[in-house]
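Reading a protein record of the kind used here takes little practice once its layout is understood. The reader may check this reading against the record printed directly beneath this paragraph.
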Amino acid sequence: MPKAPRNSNEILIVKEKILDAALDILFEEGFHFLSMRKIAVKMKMTAANLYNYFSNKDEIYLAIQTRGFALLNKHFEEINQSTKAPLDKIRQMVRTYVDFGIHHPDQYEIMFTRNTPKYSDYIGTSLEPVATIEKQTALKVAEVATNAFLELAEKKPFITIQEAGYRTIQMWTALHGIVSLINSRVLQEVDPDTDAMVEKLTEELLLPFMDIKGDFT
């Protein structure tokens, strides 16, 4: 008797498991060694069955990227909606970014560290629409963070919009360094109190937004 077709929820569950399996291979072996065959073996399914869910390894890779950025954006949007003071938003986003990187090290590595394909590599291909969704999702994360800095800049006339944009990138690069050092366990060898290090770094990076009284609000 033939199996009943899967419903949409069951299909989604299988797709998530496929992404998890592919992420493991991506992290352990790199993009160039990712293949539909390896994913199928890890999933204990036939390659033919795998193609019922994704057309090729690039579509799976882009889905992994989109999933990661969507999760980070969800956290940022929750902060944006629930917090009014720009400084508080930035502080919470900083902590959330670091926590995301620490609790999802494999995903973070693929999203921000590895030399994997980017949107420009898919322009003119059949996967350009899928890559566009991935890029737009990633840009939403940057947009929410930048808007928090812009809100803060509006309250401080001595900070320009250009300066706010620069400080966003400065904060991001510093946090990326901290996450990478924590995940490699190098920072813990130098200073085991990583939480205090993150807090101190955040305050120092926000110093340009302070007025004479040291008021951030």
Remarks:
- Residues 212-217 have pLDDT under 50 and may be disordered.
- The chain is about 75% helix and 0% strand.
- The two ends are 67 Å apart (CA to CA).
- Residues 71 and 100 are 9 Å apart (CA to CA).
